Amino acid sequence: MIFRQLFEPVSSTYTYLLGCEETGQALLIDPVLPTWQRDLAEINALGLKLAYTIDTHIHADHISAARKLKQEAGSRIAHPALDQLSCADELLEDGKPFTVGGITLAPLHTPGHTDHHFAYAVEGRVLTGDALLIDGCGRTDFQNGDAPTLYRSVHDKLFTLAEDTLVYPAHDYQGRRVSSIGQEKTRNPRLGGNKPLAEFVEIMANLKLAYPKFIDYAVPGNRECGQCPSGVPEDLQQYCEQVRVSRQG
Asked: Which of 104, 194, 211, 235 is deepest in the core (most CB within 10 A)?
């Protein structure tokens, strides 16, 4: 399997490119609208064709490139069935393998950051979205998020994977690229070290995070599989426009 980790700097989002060397089919997980051209160029340079885009959840901090890539590359949109998106071509379910060419994803329902959040396990890796970050986790104070639910998702669905499973998150804000299940179980300051549920709930309740600045545009736009809505203020247009220079993560 061909595997690439790509970075979008406006929202500090990682997009993952998975390619089947035998069939030439490719997947993009959590593609971001401003970098759709870069992602297609990467796929073309590898001699692949984009078959599917997949999102881990309805994002609040960026617009998905799923719709744009479908228009430009003819790819199909796969998305968790629980979100009931009319724009999705394939519906993903917990525990039901999703296969494209020689690549098989294991969808894992990991609610808590959002109620319908999914992670995807594939060939010794798990793409954890916002449920589990490196030394952290996604917030739980919007989109039906819930701290006890996230705690159970991480402990029951992710921490039960083999300890050498590589953890690839949807975001990192300090330039880190990869962790492992063993590392997060041991040293994650929110969820690791056998931290009890009550302590995790207290940590999440006291984060005092600001209201996400793009959420009011991102959530409705992503319920349309990546439609940047009208009326986006000038200072937020970078979330919709192409990023001219996008360094890799």
From this structure: 104
Residue owning tokens 């940590």: 203
Q: Taking each helix axis as running N to C, give the angle between helix 36-45 and helix 66-73, from 0 to 180 degrees, rounded to the nearest 10.
A: 50
Task: Give the C-alpha separation, 103 to 23, whole Å.
Answer: 10
- Whole-number Å distance between alpha carbons of 248 and 169: 14
pLDDT tens per residue across span 147-171: 999 999 999 999 999 999 999 999 9
Range of the domain at 143: 2-239
The secondary structure of the chain in percent helix, strand, coil, rounded to multiples of 5, reads 25, 25, 50
* Angle at CA of residue 81, ends 53 and 190, nearest 5°: 80
Which residues make beta-bridge pairs with 109? 118
Task: Sort strands 103-109 and 118-122 into parallel, antiparallel or unpaired.
Answer: antiparallel
Question: Rounded to a whole number, what is the largest CA-CA distance in the chain?
Answer: 50
Asked if residue 171 is part of any domain, the answer here is yes
| Chain centroid to CA 248 | 16
End-to-end CA distance of the chain: 20
In a domain, 45, yes or no: yes
For 220-243, the pLDDT digits (tens) are 999 999 999 989 999 999 999 988
* Total domains present in the chain: 1
Query: Which tokens go with 195?
Result: 């931290």
- What Cα–Cα distance (Å) separates residue 54 from each residue in 27, 44, 119, 144? 7, 18, 11, 21
Give the distance, in angstroms, between the CA of residue 196 and the centroid of all CA atoms in the same chain: 26
Which residue shows structure tokens 């430009």? 72
- pTM for this predicted structure: 0.96
**Is residue 246 domain-resident?**
no
